[in-house]
Amino acid sequence: MSKSAAGPELPPLTTGLKFLLAAGCGLTAANLYYAQPLLASISHTFHTPIAAAGAVPMACQIGYAAGLLFITPLGDTFNRRTLVAVMLSIAVVALIAIGLAPSLEILIFASLVLGVATCIPHTLIPLAVKLTKPEERGRTIGTLMSGLLLGILLSRTIAGLIGQAGNWTLVYWTAAALIAVLLVLMMINLPNVPAHADLGYRALMKSTVRIALEEPVLRQAAINGAFLFGVFSIFWSSLVFLLESPTFHLGPAAAGLFGLVGAAGTLSAPIIGRLSDSRSPRYLVGISTLITLASFLVMMASAKSLVGLVIGVILLDVGVQSANIANQARIYALRETAQSRIITVFMSTYFVGGAVGSILGTWAWATGGWILVSGCGIAASAVGLACHLLVSDPKPLSVIQPSDAS
Questions:
Q1: Which pLDDT band holds residue 193 (cuts at 50, 70, 90)?
Q2: Theoretical Cys-Cys bridge with 336: which of 5, 110, 125, 212, CB 3.0 to 4.6 Å?
Q3: What is the CATH number of domain 206-405?
């Protein structure tokens, strides 16, 4: 059994519960990406330009960012089982509303609500960490991240197949049924984990900012993660332009197939987690950042080689995924009673890095082609590595810090 910093003993994380939580991460994260391959069908249904339909996935992403900032910290003050139940219920209602939406405006609003509810993985991961022995945290995070990444990778493919076989609303009806089943399974299997902090909402949000200011390792991990996710987004936002260039004469479908190569990062997640447990997570972050930098060196030299691009993508996915798992292993060890607030700081910064990277990748291609894209990736990886090397990890905290609950 594991013992929380607050005192009560908690049930151990069984293999079955671990895989249920991983499935929960994947199924909920997938909700963010269903709309992307369905935009043509959505625009046809509501007789609007595809550009107008593009507001659907954008609303979902905006909602996700809002949920990450304003809902995820509640995991430290609410029973996480109850919080998961509420958010899954909201997700089911939003998915049904999308399936029934009589207008594009209602569809956009329902997508915004769905995005807010999709912050669930960042409640499930701290819960799993809380039930895990400290020496097995990396392995647990790796398993749940595998589920999350599989949901992201497969969501577009599954949505495209279902959407092609029937009406696009069938995708959302199917998702609503899956989330409803997940809700039942979670309520049957999730343990009751008591809240760690007795704070009002305003005090909770203030303490989130304070924790970010007080924890140098958290800031370091968040900044490193932001640069690496920015590197990841630089590549994926510009790849389709390279594939459509006269060198390859390929298109969006080929870019989608490159996404399947990302399974390498997913399959490596449990291995990465074990390495994080057996070696210092900080050491693994440094190695992973170097791998990410090397991936862009390979891709800079592969502007005319599909094989080289595939090798670069594998290195990129493994590097970014490895650093993400190791960084989370580091930050979850900081304050046992503030893990939801800690992941809020980390993932919010991570998300900003990805958004900036998407903009930078498109600009780099338009300005200097693949050479500038690769150069931006190398530069961002190098800055991420420099940020990582600036601060050493302190010794693990053995007592509750007063600021955790205030």
A1: confident
A2: 5
A3: 1.20.1250.20
Same fold, 2-196 and 206-405: yes
Taking the C-alpha atoms of residue 375 and residue 378, their distance in angstroms, rounded to an integer, is 5
Environment class of 66 (CB within 10 Å of its CB; exposed 0-12, middle 13-18, buried 19+): middle
pLDDT tens profile 109-145: 999 999 999 999 999 998 898 888 887 888 888 889 8
Map out the domains of the chain as residue ranges: 2-196, 206-405
pTM, full prediction: 0.80
* Domain 2-196 architecture: Up-down Bundle (1.20)
DSSP string, 86-132: HHHHHHHHHHHHHHH-SSHHHHHHHHHHHHHHTTTHHHHHHHHHHTS
C-alpha 151/C-alpha 156 separation (Å) is 9
d(CA 268, CA 397): 30
Q: Which two tokens stand for residue 338?
A: 């503030």
Instruction: Please give, one letter per residue, the 3-state secondary structure of 310-374.
Output: HHHHHHHHHHHHHHHHHHHHHHHCCCHHHHHHHHHHHHHHHHHHHHHHHHHHHHHHHHHHHHHHH
